[in-house]
Each structure stands twice: as C-alpha cells, then as structure tokens.
Amino acid sequence: MWKRIIIYGGLLAAGTLALQWLDYRYLTRVHPIEIYIFLIAAAFLALGIYIGVRVIRHDRPAPFDGNPKALATLGISPRELTVLQEIAAGHSNKEIARRLAISPDTVKTHVARLYEKLEAKRRTDAVNRARELGILS
C-alpha cells in the first residue's frame, strides 16, 4: 500500500513539475524584459544589504563598567552604590529598604553618606553628580 502511495505521489509531483516548467517557459517568452529587470533589482538589493552589513556596520559600545576609579576615589561602597541605583530608579527610602531587606534607618545612613561623598544636597543632585562621574548610566 505504501509503495502505491509513493509511486502515485511521485507521478503527481512529476506532472506538477512538468506543468510548472511549461508555465515558466511561457512566462519567459512573453515577459523576458520584466524578468531581467527583476533579476537586476534583486542583485542590487543583495549588494545593498551586503554593503550595509559589512561596510557601514557600527561597532558595539563598550559595556558600562560604572567607573571603578571614581567609586574608589569617592569611597563609595558596593551597598551605597546599590542604594544610589535604587534612588536613580525613583524608589523611596521605604521601598529601597524593602527591596534590599534592610531597615529604613540604614537606608537613610547610606543616603546621607552618598550626599557627603557626592557633595549633593538632594537626591536629584546626587543622581546627576553620579551620572556626570560615570558611576550611573
């Protein structure tokens, strides 16, 4: 039974191929100029994509490292940096305390130390100063 199915399927595929070939030959006789124009346009498209990928490619920027020299110079600890990142994300002291599993008083202490180290008076000043120094992205 499977042999019959395979044989009939092969014959059907061969017949379809023959009909498509005849249709293709008819099209090439009736519309040769349009086919040539299409092939030339496809070649220019491929060339444009190749040039776009190879020649005009931009290098990826270096990954953000957080300016370790500035962190060391200012003496900002990793925990203070985490608090600074949370401040930059717009979280309140209570939210920061919940997210970092520390008390709100500890957050206030970290924020006060950050103000001193960054010479800031407010949260926005601290975040802007950190961005200027390349500590935050």
Q: Would you give the CATH topology of the largest domain? A: Arc Repressor Mutant, subunit A
Shape, per Cα inertia axes: elongated
Mean of the pLDDT scores?
A: 88
Share of residues in strands: under 5%
Can you tell me the CATH class of the largest domain? Mainly Alpha
Number of domains: 2
CATH architecture of the largest domain: Orthogonal Bundle
Largest sheet descriptor: none
Helix content: over 70%
Task: Describe the secondary structure blueprint for this structure.
Blueprint: H1 2-30, H2 32-54, H3 68-74, H4 78-88, H5 93-100, H6 104-118, H7 123-133
Keywords:
elongated; Arc Repressor Mutant, subunit A; 0% strand; 76% helix; 137 residues; mainly alpha; 2 domains
Task: Please provide a written account of the structure.
This protein is mainly alpha-helical and 137 residues long. It has two domains: 2-54; 68-133, Winged helix-like DNA-binding domain superfamily/Winged helix DNA-binding domain (Arc Repressor Mutant, subunit A, Orthogonal Bundle). Helix content is 76%, strand content 0%. It has helices at 2-30, 32-54, 68-74, 78-88, 93-100, 104-118, 123-133. Helix 4 (78-88) crosses helix 7 and helix 6 crosses helix 7 (123-133).
